[in-house]
Protein: DoxX family protein
Amino acid sequence: MATAGIPLGATAELAGRVLLASLFVIEAADKLWDTGGALRYMAAYGLPAALLPLAIAVELGCGIAILLGWRTQIAAFLLAGFCFLTALIFHADLAQRAQQIQLEKDLALAGALLILAARGAGRFSIDARLT
Structure:
């Protein structure tokens, strides 16, 4: 199916990448603007402060890479692992419905990112231009 000469699939791939990437870029920005809050949240789960720069780098770097469609498969794979770890570390309290929903969301994001890692960025990407 095509829309004005542009394949609908390629447009959907781009829209999907933008939506996925925006979540991680926004979350990284939130951590940068409220570093103290992010550090307190991590400390509540027993994580060292030294991990915060790594979390920001992964979310921001991989988010931007996916947004641009550059080294998308690597970035998506890294973020899938990030989401999986986030689910297990921060949302494992299944007695709380809100935490269960967050766990499910993070696992679903990991699944979507694994699909992106397997399929690649699509037509409207730097990756496509380089190949």
